[in-house]
Amino acid sequence: MKFNKLIPNIFYIDIQIGLHLFVECLEFTIGYDDLKSENPLCVIEKDTLGIFLIQSKEFAEKDRPELRLHTDTIEEVHYRVQSKFPQLLHPNLNSITLRPWGAKEFALRDASGVCVIIQQW
Fold it and tell me: For the domain with range 9-120, which CATH number is right: 3.10.180.10, 3.40.630.30, 3.30.2270.10, 3.40.50.720?
């Protein structure tokens, strides 16, 4: 059995919050767009990653996910986020920190509470 990648669903009360974090800040692109429908959703992509962003008040109120994105250029990513979107830096991990498990990490948190940890081993 072989799998190629994991593509999570992230639910938002307002999908624009997710687009701000992933498309504007982290420079994902929209690969599939159904944003003008009664139940807005889109698939965002970057490199080999894919994420479904779905507007659903019911599911957004049940869970706020925490995701990790691995990079080989954490300093560059942190600089770009800090210079353009400092309000998205998580207050508990807003600078690059060497964690006990050996990875360098910093985190982002959007207005809905979705957390994205940027990590470099």
Answer: 3.10.180.10
